[in-house]
Fold this protein.
Amino acid sequence: MTDRSDPELIAACLDGDGKAWEALVQRYKRLIYSIPFKWGLPREDAMEIFQAVWLDCFQELHSLRDVDRLQAWLVRIAVRKCYRFAENRRGAPASVELTETDLREDPSAGLVQRLEQEQVIREAVNKLSPRCKQVIEALFFEEPMPSYAALAARLGLSVNSIGFTRDRCLERLGTLLGDLGYAY
C-alpha cells in the first residue's frame, strides 16, 4: 500500500478502502504533526490540530481538484488551523479566513515551502535501503549523533566502512531527491 502514489491512494480512500486511508495518514503524519511545533504550539495543541487536519481531509477529500497537490493541500489546511488556533488564543474572532494570497504574503508562508521540502526529504529517506536509511537517520537525525564505532557495532560493519557506506548512501539519497523534484 505504501508504494502507491497519492492519486492511487486518494482513489482508494474515496472508494472506502481503510488500508489506503492508513497509508495516507502514515505518509504525511510527520509532516502534519510538525507544523504546529513550528508555530510554537505545545504538544497537546499539536495533537488537536493533527486530528483536525485529518478530519478535514476525510470530509473534504472528494473536493480536492488536483490530486497531485495533496501534500500542499494538507500543509495549507494545517497552517490555517495553526493560524486560527494562534489567533483564537489571542482573542481574535474565530471567523478569520485565509486566502491563497494571504498565505503568500504572510511571513510564515515560507514555512509552507520548507515543510514541503522536509516532506520530500522524508520520502526520499524512506525509499533508501534499510541499511542506508539507518546510516542517514543515525548520522543526520539522531541526537546525539552516534560515533562511527557505535554505528558500526549497531550495523554489524567495520568502523572503516562507515565513511564509505555514508558516502554511498548520501549519493543514493541525492539521486532519490532529484527524482522527487527536490531543488537544492
About this structure: The chain has two domains: 1-108, 127-184. The chain has a mean pLDDT of 82. The CA atoms of residues 105 and 166 lie 40 Å apart. The radius of gyration is 19 Å.
